[in-house]
Structures are given as structure tokens and as C-alpha cells.
Write a structure and sequence with these properties.
The protein has helices at 48-55, 78-88, 104-114, 121-130, 146-159, 176-191, 204-207, 230-237, and strands at residues 4-15, 22-33, 37-41, 63-68, 71-72, 89-93, 164-168, 197-200, 212-217, 220-226. By secondary structure, it is α/β, with parallel strands linked by helices. Strand 4 (63-68) and strand 5 form a beta hairpin. Helix 3 (104-114) runs parallel beside helix 5, helix 4 runs antiparallel to helix 5 (146-159) and helix 5 (146-159) packs parallel to helix 6. Bound molecules: adenosine-5'-diphosphate.
């Protein structure tokens, strides 16, 4: 038994060939401990998305290993990987990625239904209430604010009790106050429910909600700060806000 929700061990991912070859991740090793909240930052092109994609099994590294809840996912056949992604990994995106024709409730239970399982109605109700959507279960995405849509996406990601929740710029499309609510919710998922969250963000304010901030540059982790202030983060990023 280990307490790492996700472990990357010497992960290298290269795109293209020859003159156009780009090493998006270069021998990256990092452990995301269970029940922690980590922010991943760095300039555009530094490898943040690739790290998230390799960590969540959406992409495979050329070398190195990725372990999710102790299981090496790098050599899993496609079908087994799809099942593991479905059952153990939650992802939320900047653009929410809800199905417009479905209600909040139907969006939350969609992955469970696609897995041909019966959703636990009590848990769906409880999750929607916990993310502040009580009474709005029957609303479609267009009838919800951006923040509410992201909260539906979080409830959907949490329904399956994933080993890890990856978040790709989850507040990127939200105003500051609404972004705050979403970050508070992710923080609560970690503190009260032992969820593990790994969040890519450009926003130093958003990153202050994390326990630790990783800084990527040219496909490598160049620094890690524990519980930094927004000022420390901005300074580390090079003074840009
Ligand atoms: P970030 O998320 O920090 O902006 P990425 O992980 O998207 O960085 O990209 C890291 C590097 O890999 C960049 O140079 C990018 O151009 C390259 N890259 C990412 N995805 C692809 C791809 N599918 N094909 C070719 N190059 C890619």
C-alpha cells in the first residue's frame, strides 16, 4: 500500500520527429500524495497539458511509468486503460464539457450510465447539493451560470470516487468570484473527503489554494513551492501576473 494517488517515474514524451521533434516532458518524476491539492504552473509550451494527459492516461509516455493508485497504467491495453480511466480518474476542463441537451442530473450520471451501471441516486443528490446545485438538478447547462456548470462537472467527476481528480484550467473561463467558489469546492474535496486534486493553472491566485505548486519549464519540473503566496508564485513565474 502506498499513499501516492499518482506517481510519474522518469516520464518522457516527445512529439514529432527529426527537425520538428519536441520533448514535451523530459524524465519527469513526481508523486502526487493522496488527499493533497497540487497546482501545476509554467509558461505556455512548458509541458503542463502533457503532464496532465500522461498522468490521466489520455496519452502514453515513450519511456518511464505512470502509476495510478499503485497500478502501472503505461503498459495497460487500451480497453483496460479506458476502464481504469473511467473508474479511477476524474477530469474537469476549462470549457466544462457538459452535454447541452442533458440536465445537470443527467450529466452527472452519464459516465455511470455509459458504464452500464445504476447510479446511486442518494449520492447524486448529495453531490449536487454539496456543490450548491440543490433545486437545479433539472436545469440544462444553458440555464446555469458558468460557475454552476463547472460545479456540475465537478460533481460528475467525483461521482465515481476517483483516485485522482485532474483539473485543466478549471477557473480559466470564470470570473474571479465564481472561480473562488470552484476552488473552494476543490479544496473541500481534498480536506473533507480525502480527494486528490492536480490542477493546471496560469493564475497565481488560483494556485494559492493548493498545498504545493510545481513549476514546469521546457518539459521539466524546475521548482516546487509549498503553500506559496500569490506574490511568491508571481515572482517565481518571472514577475508576470
Ligand atoms: P503547456 O500545456 O504547458 O502549454 P504542452 O504540454 O501543451 O504545454 O506542450 C509542450 C510542448 O509539446 C510544446 O512545445 C507543444 O508545442 C508540444 N506539443 C504538445 N502537444 C503536441 C502535439 N500533439 N503534437 C506536437 N507537439 C505537441
Amino acid at each position: 500500500m502506498n499513499d501516492h494517488a499518482v506517481l510519474l517515474d522518469g516520464v518522457t514524451r516527445t512529439y514529432g520527429r527529426g527537425a520538428t521533434e519536441v520533448t514535451a516532458l523530459r524524465q519527469v518524476s513526481v508523486a502526487f500524495t493522496s488527499a493533497t491539492f497540487t497546482a501545476v504552473m509554467g509558461p505556455s509550451g512548458s509541458g503542463k497539458s502533457t503532464l496532465l494527459q500522461c498522468g490521466s492516461g489520455l496519452d502514453r509516455p515513450e519511456s518511464g511509468a505512470v502509476r495510478v493508485a499503485g497500478q502501472d497504467i503505461t503498459r495497460l491495453p487500451e480497453k483496460a486503460l479506458a476502464v481504469l480511466r473511467r473508474d479511477r480518474i476524474g477530469i474537469i476542463f476549462q470549457a466544462f464539457n457538459l452535454v447541452p441537451s442533458l440536465t445537470a442530473w443527467q450529466n452527472v450520471v452519464l459516465p455511470t450510465r455509459l458504464a452500464r451501471r445504476r447510479p446511486d441516486a442518494d449520492r447524486v443528490r448529495e453531490l449536487l447539493a454539496r456543490v450548491g446545485l440543490e433545486g437545479r438538478e433539472g436545469h440544462r447547462p444553458a440555464q446555469l451560470s458558468g460557475g454552476q456548470q463547472q460545479r456540475v462537472a465537478i460533481a460528475r467527476a467525483l461521482l465515481g470516487r476517483p483516485a485522482v481528480l485532474f483539473a485543466d484550467e478549471p477557473t480559466g473561463a470564470l470570473d474571479r468570484a465564481t472561480g473562488h467558489e470552484v476552488l473552494a469546492l476543490l479544496r473541500e474535496a481534498v480536506d473533507r473527503f480525502g480527494q486528490t486534486v492536480v490542477m493546471v493553472t496560469h493564475d497565481p491566485e488560483a494556485a494559492t489554494w493548493a498545498d504545493a505548486v510545481l513549476f514546469l519549464r521546457d518539459g521539466q519540473i524546475v521548482d516546487t513551492l509549498a503553500r506559496p503566496s500569490a506574490e511568491q508564485i508571481s515572482a517565481r513565474l518571472g514577475g508576470r501576473r
